[in-house]
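Notes continue from the previous slide.

Worked example: a multi-chain complex. Inputs as given:
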Amino acid sequence: MATAKNGAGRFDKMAMSPKEYQVYAKEKEPPRSILGNCLKAFLVGGSICLVGQAVTELFMHLMNMTPEQASNPTVAVMILLSVILTSLGVYDKLAQFAGAGSAVPVTGFANSMCSAALEHRSEGLVLGVGGNMFKLAGAVIVYGTVAAFFVGIAHLILGTGGQ
Amino acid sequence: MLKGKQSWWFANRPVIIGASSVVGPEEGSGPLAESFDLVHPELDMQQKSWEKAERLLLEQASEFAVQKAGLSRQDVQFYVGGDLMNQIISSSFAARAIGAPYIGVFGACSTSMESLALACQLVDSGAAERVLAGTASHNCTAEKQFRYPTEYGSQKPPTAQFTVTGAGAALVAAQGNGPVVECATIGKVVDLGIKDPFNMGAAMAPAAVDTIQAHFNDTGRSPGDYDLIVTGDLAGVGHPIAKELLMKNGVPMDHTEFNDCGLLVYDVEKQKVQAGGSGCACSAVVTYGHLLKRLAKGELKRILVVATGALLSPISFQQGESIPGIAHAVAITAGNGEGGEA
Protein backbone atom coordinates (compact mmCIF):
# COMPACT_ATOMS: atom_id res chain seq x y z
CA MET A 1 0.00 0.00 0.00
CA ALA A 2 1.13 3.51 -0.77
CA THR A 3 2.75 5.01 2.25
CA ALA A 4 1.96 8.54 3.29
CA LYS A 5 4.49 9.58 5.83
CA ASN A 6 3.18 11.64 8.70
CA GLY A 7 0.00 12.46 6.84
CA ALA A 8 -2.54 14.53 8.69
CA GLY A 9 -4.71 11.45 8.61
CA ARG A 10 -6.23 9.88 11.65
CA PHE A 11 -6.02 6.49 10.08
CA ASP A 12 -2.61 5.11 9.38
CA LYS A 13 -1.79 3.50 6.13
CA MET A 14 -1.36 -0.19 6.12
CA ALA A 15 2.02 -1.56 7.02
CA MET A 16 1.70 -4.58 4.83
CA SER A 17 4.20 -5.22 2.08
CA PRO A 18 2.98 -6.59 -1.26
CA LYS A 19 4.54 -9.96 -0.41
CA GLU A 20 2.80 -10.09 2.96
CA TYR A 21 -0.48 -9.12 1.34
CA GLN A 22 -0.20 -11.80 -1.33
CA VAL A 23 0.31 -14.46 1.34
CA TYR A 24 -2.55 -13.00 3.38
CA ALA A 25 -4.89 -12.89 0.35
CA LYS A 26 -3.99 -16.47 -0.55
CA GLU A 27 -5.11 -17.58 2.91
CA LYS A 28 -8.47 -15.86 2.35
CA GLU A 29 -9.28 -17.85 -0.76
CA PRO A 30 -12.07 -20.36 -0.24
CA PRO A 31 -10.69 -23.89 -0.32
CA ARG A 32 -11.06 -25.87 -3.52
CA SER A 33 -12.00 -29.49 -3.15
CA ILE A 34 -9.35 -31.30 -5.19
CA LEU A 35 -10.74 -34.70 -4.28
CA GLY A 36 -14.31 -33.65 -5.11
CA ASN A 37 -13.22 -32.11 -8.41
CA CYS A 38 -11.27 -35.26 -9.31
CA LEU A 39 -14.28 -37.41 -8.56
CA LYS A 40 -16.61 -35.21 -10.63
CA ALA A 41 -14.10 -35.15 -13.49
CA PHE A 42 -13.80 -38.94 -13.33
CA LEU A 43 -17.55 -39.47 -13.36
CA VAL A 44 -18.38 -37.01 -16.15
CA GLY A 45 -15.28 -37.81 -18.21
CA GLY A 46 -15.97 -41.50 -17.76
CA SER A 47 -19.60 -41.07 -18.78
CA ILE A 48 -18.60 -39.23 -21.96
CA CYS A 49 -16.23 -42.10 -22.78
CA LEU A 50 -19.01 -44.57 -22.04
CA VAL A 51 -21.25 -42.81 -24.55
CA GLY A 52 -18.36 -42.92 -27.03
CA GLN A 53 -17.96 -46.66 -26.45
CA ALA A 54 -21.68 -47.20 -26.97
CA VAL A 55 -21.51 -45.32 -30.29
CA THR A 56 -18.52 -47.47 -31.34
CA GLU A 57 -20.45 -50.65 -30.47
CA LEU A 58 -23.40 -49.41 -32.52
CA PHE A 59 -21.23 -48.86 -35.56
CA MET A 60 -19.62 -52.28 -35.09
CA HIS A 61 -22.86 -54.20 -34.69
CA LEU A 62 -25.19 -52.31 -36.97
CA MET A 63 -22.76 -51.56 -39.78
CA ASN A 64 -20.36 -54.49 -39.32
CA MET A 65 -17.33 -52.25 -38.83
CA THR A 66 -14.10 -53.33 -37.20
CA PRO A 67 -13.09 -51.38 -34.02
CA GLU A 68 -10.55 -49.45 -36.15
CA GLN A 69 -13.17 -48.57 -38.75
CA ALA A 70 -15.67 -47.54 -36.09
CA SER A 71 -13.32 -45.08 -34.37
CA ASN A 72 -13.50 -42.32 -36.97
CA PRO A 73 -17.30 -42.12 -37.23
CA THR A 74 -17.45 -42.34 -33.42
CA VAL A 75 -15.28 -39.25 -33.08
CA ALA A 76 -17.48 -37.47 -35.61
CA VAL A 77 -20.61 -38.34 -33.63
CA MET A 78 -19.04 -37.17 -30.36
CA ILE A 79 -17.98 -33.90 -31.97
CA LEU A 80 -21.49 -33.42 -33.32
CA LEU A 81 -23.01 -34.07 -29.89
CA SER A 82 -20.60 -31.59 -28.28
CA VAL A 83 -21.35 -28.92 -30.88
CA ILE A 84 -25.09 -29.38 -30.36
CA LEU A 85 -24.72 -29.14 -26.57
CA THR A 86 -22.45 -26.08 -26.94
CA SER A 87 -24.93 -24.38 -29.23
CA LEU A 88 -27.76 -25.08 -26.82
CA GLY A 89 -25.75 -23.44 -24.03
CA VAL A 90 -25.43 -26.64 -22.02
CA TYR A 91 -21.77 -27.60 -22.36
CA ASP A 92 -20.37 -24.64 -20.41
CA LYS A 93 -22.68 -25.40 -17.51
CA LEU A 94 -21.65 -29.05 -17.57
CA ALA A 95 -18.02 -27.90 -17.54
CA GLN A 96 -18.44 -25.76 -14.44
CA PHE A 97 -19.41 -28.98 -12.67
CA ALA A 98 -17.11 -31.42 -14.45
CA GLY A 99 -13.91 -29.42 -14.93
CA ALA A 100 -11.32 -31.57 -16.66
CA GLY A 101 -13.93 -34.29 -17.13
CA SER A 102 -15.55 -32.36 -19.96
CA ALA A 103 -12.40 -30.56 -21.16
CA VAL A 104 -10.11 -33.52 -21.85
CA PRO A 105 -12.27 -35.74 -24.12
CA VAL A 106 -12.64 -34.84 -27.80
CA THR A 107 -15.96 -33.19 -26.91
CA GLY A 108 -14.01 -30.51 -25.01
CA PHE A 109 -11.89 -29.82 -28.07
CA ALA A 110 -15.01 -29.49 -30.21
CA ASN A 111 -16.52 -27.18 -27.59
CA SER A 112 -13.49 -24.89 -27.68
CA MET A 113 -13.80 -24.51 -31.46
CA CYS A 114 -17.57 -24.24 -31.58
CA SER A 115 -17.78 -21.71 -28.74
CA ALA A 116 -15.15 -19.48 -30.37
CA ALA A 117 -16.91 -19.73 -33.74
CA LEU A 118 -20.24 -18.77 -32.17
CA GLU A 119 -18.74 -15.95 -30.15
CA HIS A 120 -17.03 -14.28 -33.07
CA ARG A 121 -19.79 -14.82 -35.63
CA SER A 122 -20.81 -11.17 -35.21
CA GLU A 123 -17.40 -10.15 -36.59
CA GLY A 124 -17.99 -11.89 -39.93
CA LEU A 125 -17.48 -15.33 -41.42
CA VAL A 126 -13.87 -14.90 -42.53
CA LEU A 127 -12.10 -12.82 -39.90
CA GLY A 128 -14.65 -13.53 -37.18
CA VAL A 129 -15.41 -17.24 -37.38
CA GLY A 130 -12.44 -18.30 -39.50
CA GLY A 131 -9.89 -16.21 -37.69
CA ASN A 132 -11.01 -17.03 -34.17
CA MET A 133 -12.13 -20.63 -34.37
CA PHE A 134 -8.69 -21.90 -33.39
CA LYS A 135 -8.19 -19.24 -30.73
CA LEU A 136 -8.25 -21.86 -27.97
CA ALA A 137 -7.93 -25.05 -30.03
CA GLY A 138 -4.79 -23.73 -31.72
CA ALA A 139 -2.78 -24.17 -28.53
CA VAL A 140 -3.94 -27.79 -28.25
CA ILE A 141 -2.91 -28.50 -31.83
CA VAL A 142 0.48 -26.78 -31.52
CA TYR A 143 1.46 -28.45 -28.27
CA GLY A 144 -0.15 -31.74 -29.23
CA THR A 145 2.04 -31.81 -32.33
CA VAL A 146 5.15 -30.77 -30.39
CA ALA A 147 4.48 -33.45 -27.77
CA ALA A 148 3.92 -36.07 -30.48
CA PHE A 149 7.23 -35.10 -32.08
CA PHE A 150 9.16 -35.63 -28.85
CA VAL A 151 7.33 -38.87 -28.06
CA GLY A 152 8.20 -40.01 -31.59
CA ILE A 153 11.88 -39.18 -31.03
CA ALA A 154 11.81 -41.06 -27.71
CA HIS A 155 10.30 -44.07 -29.42
CA LEU A 156 13.00 -43.95 -32.10
CA ILE A 157 15.82 -43.75 -29.56
CA LEU A 158 14.42 -46.44 -27.30
CA GLY A 159 13.48 -48.62 -30.27
CA THR A 160 9.94 -49.04 -28.94
CA GLY A 161 8.15 -47.50 -31.92
CA GLY A 162 5.71 -49.93 -33.42
CA GLN A 163 5.41 -50.36 -37.15
CA MET B 1 -13.77 22.52 -3.71
CA LEU B 2 -10.75 20.48 -2.66
CA LYS B 3 -11.04 19.07 0.81
CA GLY B 4 -8.00 17.42 2.30
CA LYS B 5 -5.75 15.69 -0.19
CA GLN B 6 -7.99 13.96 -2.67
CA SER B 7 -11.61 14.77 -1.92
CA TRP B 8 -14.07 17.18 -3.46
CA TRP B 9 -16.62 18.93 -1.27
CA PHE B 10 -19.70 19.94 -3.22
CA ALA B 11 -20.74 23.12 -1.41
CA ASN B 12 -23.58 23.82 -3.84
CA ARG B 13 -25.15 20.45 -3.12
CA PRO B 14 -25.75 18.92 -6.55
CA VAL B 15 -28.88 16.79 -6.72
CA ILE B 16 -29.55 13.49 -8.49
CA ILE B 17 -32.86 14.48 -10.08
CA GLY B 18 -33.30 11.23 -11.97
CA ALA B 19 -31.67 7.81 -11.81
CA SER B 20 -32.33 4.55 -13.54
CA SER B 21 -31.13 0.98 -13.71
CA VAL B 22 -31.74 -1.67 -16.35
CA VAL B 23 -30.58 -5.27 -15.92
CA GLY B 24 -30.44 -8.71 -17.49
CA PRO B 25 -32.07 -12.02 -16.50
CA GLU B 26 -29.68 -13.17 -13.77
CA GLU B 27 -29.94 -9.86 -11.89
CA GLY B 28 -33.69 -9.95 -12.48
CA SER B 29 -33.90 -13.20 -10.56
CA GLY B 30 -31.76 -11.84 -7.72
CA PRO B 31 -32.89 -10.31 -4.43
CA LEU B 32 -33.01 -6.74 -5.81
CA ALA B 33 -35.22 -7.56 -8.82
CA GLU B 34 -37.96 -5.19 -7.63
CA SER B 35 -35.59 -2.22 -7.57
CA PHE B 36 -34.79 -2.18 -11.27
CA ASP B 37 -36.70 -0.18 -13.86
CA LEU B 38 -36.45 -2.83 -16.52
CA VAL B 39 -35.43 -6.48 -16.45
CA HIS B 40 -34.53 -8.04 -19.77
CA PRO B 41 -35.58 -11.70 -19.84
CA GLU B 42 -32.92 -12.63 -22.42
CA LEU B 43 -29.19 -11.95 -22.42
CA ASP B 44 -29.13 -10.96 -26.09
CA MET B 45 -31.98 -8.46 -25.75
CA GLN B 46 -32.90 -9.27 -29.34
CA GLN B 47 -29.71 -7.64 -30.54
CA LYS B 48 -27.31 -9.11 -33.08
CA SER B 49 -24.26 -8.99 -30.84
CA TRP B 50 -23.45 -8.88 -27.13
CA GLU B 51 -21.85 -5.49 -27.67
CA LYS B 52 -25.08 -4.11 -29.13
CA ALA B 53 -27.00 -5.52 -26.16
CA GLU B 54 -24.68 -3.74 -23.71
CA ARG B 55 -25.10 -0.49 -25.61
CA LEU B 56 -28.89 -0.89 -25.56
CA LEU B 57 -28.81 -1.26 -21.77
CA LEU B 58 -26.93 2.01 -21.40
CA GLU B 59 -29.17 3.84 -23.84
CA GLN B 60 -32.25 2.66 -21.98
CA ALA B 61 -30.92 3.52 -18.52
CA SER B 62 -29.91 6.99 -19.77
CA GLU B 63 -33.28 7.56 -21.37
CA PHE B 64 -35.18 6.48 -18.25
CA ALA B 65 -33.02 8.61 -15.94
CA VAL B 66 -33.76 11.70 -18.01
CA GLN B 67 -37.46 10.84 -18.28
CA LYS B 68 -37.77 10.36 -14.52
CA ALA B 69 -36.48 13.88 -14.03
CA GLY B 70 -39.29 15.02 -16.30
CA LEU B 71 -36.83 16.15 -18.94
CA SER B 72 -35.80 15.08 -22.41
CA ARG B 73 -32.46 14.24 -24.02
CA GLN B 74 -31.99 17.81 -25.21
CA ASP B 75 -31.83 18.95 -21.60
CA VAL B 76 -28.67 16.94 -20.92
CA GLN B 77 -25.78 19.39 -21.16
CA PHE B 78 -22.95 16.90 -20.76
CA TYR B 79 -22.73 13.16 -20.65
CA VAL B 80 -19.97 11.44 -18.67
CA GLY B 81 -19.74 7.72 -19.27
CA GLY B 82 -17.52 4.69 -19.49
CA ASP B 83 -17.57 0.91 -19.60
CA LEU B 84 -15.32 -2.13 -19.78
CA MET B 85 -15.12 -2.60 -23.51
CA ASN B 86 -11.99 -1.82 -25.49
CA GLN B 87 -12.06 1.87 -26.39
CA ILE B 88 -15.22 2.22 -24.21
CA ILE B 89 -17.43 1.62 -27.24
CA SER B 90 -20.63 1.06 -25.30
CA SER B 91 -20.51 4.53 -23.79
CA SER B 92 -19.34 6.28 -26.93
CA PHE B 93 -22.01 4.62 -29.05
CA ALA B 94 -24.66 5.37 -26.43
CA ALA B 95 -23.42 8.97 -26.40
CA ARG B 96 -24.08 9.04 -30.13
CA ALA B 97 -27.74 8.31 -29.36
CA ILE B 98 -27.94 10.71 -26.43
CA GLY B 99 -26.48 13.48 -28.52
CA ALA B 100 -25.01 15.52 -25.65
CA PRO B 101 -21.39 16.71 -25.45
CA TYR B 102 -19.55 13.67 -24.15
CA ILE B 103 -16.68 12.96 -21.79
CA GLY B 104 -15.58 9.32 -21.97
CA VAL B 105 -13.94 7.93 -18.86
CA PHE B 106 -12.41 4.61 -17.89
CA GLY B 107 -12.08 3.34 -14.37
CA ALA B 108 -13.03 -0.27 -15.00
CA CYS B 109 -15.73 -1.18 -12.49
CA SER B 110 -15.17 2.05 -10.55
CA THR B 111 -16.54 3.99 -13.54
CA SER B 112 -19.96 4.35 -11.91
CA MET B 113 -18.70 6.58 -9.10
CA GLU B 114 -15.92 8.10 -11.21
CA SER B 115 -18.49 9.39 -13.67
CA LEU B 116 -20.89 10.47 -10.90
CA ALA B 117 -18.12 12.35 -9.07
CA LEU B 118 -17.11 14.12 -12.28
CA ALA B 119 -20.72 14.97 -13.11
CA CYS B 120 -21.19 16.44 -9.64
CA GLN B 121 -17.94 18.39 -9.91
CA LEU B 122 -19.10 19.89 -13.22
CA VAL B 123 -22.42 20.90 -11.72
CA ASP B 124 -20.98 22.10 -8.43
CA SER B 125 -18.36 24.25 -10.12
CA GLY B 126 -20.96 25.85 -12.37
CA ALA B 127 -19.54 24.31 -15.54
CA ALA B 128 -22.96 22.79 -16.22
CA GLU B 129 -26.48 22.66 -14.85
CA ARG B 130 -27.45 19.14 -15.84
CA VAL B 131 -24.96 16.33 -16.38
CA LEU B 132 -25.77 12.70 -17.04
CA ALA B 133 -23.45 10.02 -15.65
CA GLY B 134 -23.81 6.46 -16.84
CA THR B 135 -22.11 3.13 -17.16
CA ALA B 136 -22.87 -0.40 -18.33
CA SER B 137 -21.49 -3.91 -18.42
CA HIS B 138 -22.66 -7.19 -19.90
CA ASN B 139 -21.70 -10.61 -18.69
CA CYS B 140 -21.08 -11.93 -22.20
CA THR B 141 -19.07 -8.97 -23.53
CA ALA B 142 -16.84 -9.18 -20.46
CA GLU B 143 -16.42 -12.94 -20.78
CA LYS B 144 -15.61 -12.56 -24.46
CA GLN B 145 -13.09 -9.78 -23.98
CA PHE B 146 -11.41 -10.75 -20.71
CA ARG B 147 -11.86 -14.51 -20.48
CA TYR B 148 -13.13 -17.14 -22.89
CA PRO B 149 -15.99 -17.40 -25.40
CA THR B 150 -19.25 -17.46 -23.43
CA GLU B 151 -20.09 -21.05 -24.34
CA TYR B 152 -16.59 -22.37 -23.69
CA GLY B 153 -16.56 -25.02 -21.02
CA SER B 154 -14.10 -23.85 -18.40
CA GLN B 155 -14.41 -24.37 -14.69
CA LYS B 156 -14.30 -21.14 -12.70
CA PRO B 157 -12.67 -21.13 -9.28
CA PRO B 158 -14.73 -20.06 -6.24
CA THR B 159 -12.82 -16.74 -6.14
CA ALA B 160 -14.11 -15.77 -9.61
CA GLN B 161 -16.89 -13.20 -9.94
CA PHE B 162 -19.88 -12.92 -12.23
CA THR B 163 -20.08 -9.78 -14.37
CA VAL B 164 -23.37 -7.98 -13.90
CA THR B 165 -25.45 -7.46 -17.03
CA GLY B 166 -26.98 -4.03 -16.71
CA ALA B 167 -26.63 -0.30 -16.88
CA GLY B 168 -27.14 2.56 -14.51
CA ALA B 169 -27.45 6.27 -15.15
CA ALA B 170 -27.98 9.33 -12.98
CA LEU B 171 -28.87 12.85 -13.99
CA VAL B 172 -27.16 15.39 -11.73
CA ALA B 173 -28.51 18.93 -11.56
CA ALA B 174 -27.75 22.13 -9.71
CA GLN B 175 -31.32 22.29 -8.42
CA GLY B 176 -34.26 19.99 -7.97
CA ASN B 177 -35.58 17.26 -5.79
CA GLY B 178 -33.71 14.12 -5.01
CA PRO B 179 -30.73 12.71 -3.19
CA VAL B 180 -27.89 15.20 -2.68
CA VAL B 181 -24.29 14.35 -3.42
CA GLU B 182 -22.16 15.82 -0.62
CA CYS B 183 -18.62 14.90 -1.52
CA ALA B 184 -16.42 12.51 -3.41
CA THR B 185 -13.01 11.01 -2.85
CA ILE B 186 -10.95 10.19 -5.91
CA GLY B 187 -8.84 7.09 -5.40
CA LYS B 188 -5.22 6.34 -6.14
CA VAL B 189 -4.08 3.31 -8.07
CA VAL B 190 -3.02 0.69 -5.54
CA ASP B 191 -1.32 -2.53 -6.54
CA LEU B 192 -0.15 -5.10 -4.04
CA GLY B 193 0.86 -7.60 -6.66
CA ILE B 194 -2.15 -9.92 -7.01
CA LYS B 195 -1.90 -11.50 -10.46
CA ASP B 196 -4.87 -13.85 -10.56
CA PRO B 197 -7.59 -12.42 -12.84
CA PHE B 198 -9.98 -14.87 -11.19
CA ASN B 199 -9.45 -13.18 -7.84
CA MET B 200 -10.11 -9.53 -8.56
CA GLY B 201 -11.77 -8.98 -5.20
CA ALA B 202 -8.46 -9.53 -3.45
CA ALA B 203 -6.68 -7.38 -6.05
CA MET B 204 -9.03 -4.43 -5.48
CA ALA B 205 -9.53 -4.64 -1.71
CA PRO B 206 -6.39 -2.59 -0.83
CA ALA B 207 -7.57 0.19 -3.17
CA ALA B 208 -10.94 0.29 -1.41
CA VAL B 209 -9.19 0.45 1.96
CA ASP B 210 -6.94 3.26 0.74
CA THR B 211 -9.83 5.34 -0.60
CA ILE B 212 -12.08 4.78 2.43
CA GLN B 213 -9.29 5.86 4.78
CA ALA B 214 -8.47 8.85 2.60
CA HIS B 215 -12.16 9.80 2.63
CA PHE B 216 -12.32 9.81 6.43
CA ASN B 217 -9.00 11.61 6.72
CA ASP B 218 -10.00 14.29 4.19
CA THR B 219 -13.54 14.90 5.40
CA GLY B 220 -13.05 14.37 9.13
CA ARG B 221 -15.93 11.96 9.05
CA SER B 222 -16.09 8.50 10.59
CA PRO B 223 -17.84 5.28 9.55
CA GLY B 224 -20.56 6.09 12.10
CA ASP B 225 -21.56 9.12 10.02
CA TYR B 226 -22.94 6.77 7.37
CA ASP B 227 -25.91 4.44 7.64
CA LEU B 228 -24.37 2.28 4.98
CA ILE B 229 -21.01 2.03 3.28
CA VAL B 230 -20.86 -0.20 0.23
CA THR B 231 -17.90 -1.24 -1.85
CA GLY B 232 -18.48 -1.79 -5.56
CA ASP B 233 -17.59 -5.35 -6.43
CA LEU B 234 -15.20 -6.87 -3.93
CA ALA B 235 -17.61 -9.79 -3.41
CA GLY B 236 -17.18 -12.79 -1.16
CA VAL B 237 -13.40 -12.86 -1.11
CA GLY B 238 -12.42 -9.19 -1.36
CA HIS B 239 -15.02 -7.65 0.95
CA PRO B 240 -14.04 -9.52 4.13
CA ILE B 241 -10.40 -8.68 3.32
CA ALA B 242 -11.22 -4.97 3.04
CA LYS B 243 -13.17 -5.06 6.30
CA GLU B 244 -10.39 -6.83 8.14
CA LEU B 245 -7.72 -4.46 6.84
CA LEU B 246 -9.80 -1.40 7.78
CA MET B 247 -10.42 -2.72 11.28
CA LYS B 248 -6.72 -3.55 11.61
CA ASN B 249 -5.90 0.03 10.69
CA GLY B 250 -8.19 1.30 13.42
CA VAL B 251 -11.12 2.36 11.24
CA PRO B 252 -14.24 1.49 13.25
CA MET B 253 -16.21 -0.16 10.46
CA ASP B 254 -18.42 -1.81 13.06
CA HIS B 255 -20.04 1.60 13.64
CA THR B 256 -21.79 1.35 10.29
CA GLU B 257 -23.28 -1.27 8.02
CA PHE B 258 -20.50 -2.27 5.65
CA ASN B 259 -21.59 -4.24 2.62
CA ASP B 260 -20.72 -4.83 -1.02
CA CYS B 261 -22.78 -4.33 -4.18
CA GLY B 262 -21.42 -7.61 -5.59
CA LEU B 263 -22.94 -9.41 -2.60
CA LEU B 264 -26.21 -7.46 -2.69
CA VAL B 265 -27.05 -7.87 -6.36
CA TYR B 266 -27.19 -11.69 -6.30
CA ASP B 267 -28.22 -14.36 -3.87
CA VAL B 268 -24.70 -15.70 -3.63
CA GLU B 269 -25.85 -18.93 -1.98
CA LYS B 270 -28.46 -19.82 -4.59
CA GLN B 271 -27.28 -18.22 -7.83
CA LYS B 272 -24.27 -19.64 -9.62
CA VAL B 273 -22.13 -16.53 -9.46
CA GLN B 274 -19.10 -17.89 -7.55
CA ALA B 275 -17.91 -15.14 -5.16
CA GLY B 276 -20.52 -12.58 -6.29
CA GLY B 277 -21.11 -9.84 -8.82
CA SER B 278 -18.64 -7.58 -10.59
CA GLY B 279 -18.53 -5.21 -13.54
CA CYS B 280 -19.27 -1.53 -14.09
CA ALA B 281 -22.97 -2.15 -13.76
CA CYS B 282 -22.62 -3.87 -10.39
CA SER B 283 -22.27 -0.75 -8.24
CA ALA B 284 -24.28 1.32 -10.76
CA VAL B 285 -27.48 -0.76 -10.67
CA VAL B 286 -27.29 -1.36 -6.91
CA THR B 287 -26.76 2.36 -6.21
CA TYR B 288 -29.09 3.87 -8.80
CA GLY B 289 -31.70 1.14 -8.48
CA HIS B 290 -31.70 -0.08 -4.91
CA LEU B 291 -29.84 2.35 -2.64
CA LEU B 292 -31.30 5.62 -3.94
CA LYS B 293 -34.75 4.14 -3.45
CA ARG B 294 -33.89 3.28 0.15
CA LEU B 295 -32.69 6.86 0.65
CA ALA B 296 -35.93 8.19 -0.83
CA LYS B 297 -37.98 5.95 1.45
CA GLY B 298 -36.09 7.22 4.46
CA GLU B 299 -34.63 3.82 5.33
CA LEU B 300 -31.18 5.31 4.93
CA LYS B 301 -30.06 8.87 5.53
CA ARG B 302 -26.53 8.98 4.28
CA ILE B 303 -24.50 6.45 2.33
CA LEU B 304 -20.99 6.14 0.96
CA VAL B 305 -20.56 4.21 -2.27
CA VAL B 306 -16.99 3.10 -2.89
CA ALA B 307 -16.89 1.75 -6.44
CA THR B 308 -13.89 -0.49 -7.03
CA GLY B 309 -12.10 -1.16 -10.29
CA ALA B 310 -9.48 -3.63 -11.48
CA LEU B 311 -7.37 -1.83 -14.05
CA LEU B 312 -6.18 -4.84 -15.98
CA SER B 313 -6.40 -5.61 -19.66
CA PRO B 314 -6.50 -9.00 -21.38
CA ILE B 315 -2.97 -8.28 -22.58
CA SER B 316 -1.53 -7.11 -19.27
CA PHE B 317 -2.44 -10.21 -17.31
CA GLN B 318 -1.30 -12.55 -20.06
CA GLN B 319 2.05 -10.78 -19.93
CA GLY B 320 2.19 -11.61 -16.25
CA GLU B 321 1.54 -8.11 -14.91
CA SER B 322 -0.18 -7.71 -11.57
CA ILE B 323 -3.65 -6.18 -11.30
CA PRO B 324 -3.74 -2.51 -10.24
CA GLY B 325 -6.84 -1.56 -8.30
CA ILE B 326 -8.66 1.73 -7.86
CA ALA B 327 -11.66 2.93 -5.86
CA HIS B 328 -13.70 6.12 -5.96
CA ALA B 329 -16.06 7.09 -3.14
CA VAL B 330 -19.17 9.25 -3.37
CA ALA B 331 -21.24 10.32 -0.36
CA ILE B 332 -24.98 10.69 -0.97
CA THR B 333 -27.66 11.88 1.47
CA ALA B 334 -31.42 11.59 1.36
CA GLY B 335 -31.47 15.22 0.38
CA ASN B 336 -34.17 17.80 0.29
CA GLY B 337 -37.76 18.23 -0.76
CA GLU B 338 -39.95 15.25 -1.36
CA GLY B 339 -37.03 12.98 -1.96
CA GLY B 340 -37.49 13.01 -5.70
CA GLU B 341 -37.94 9.96 -7.84
CA ALA B 342 -35.08 7.56 -7.73
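Summary box: Residues 181-333 of chain B form a domain with the Peroxisomal Thiolase; Chain A, domain 1 fold (CATH 3.40.47.40). Confidence is low (pLDDT under 50) at residues 337-342 of chain B.
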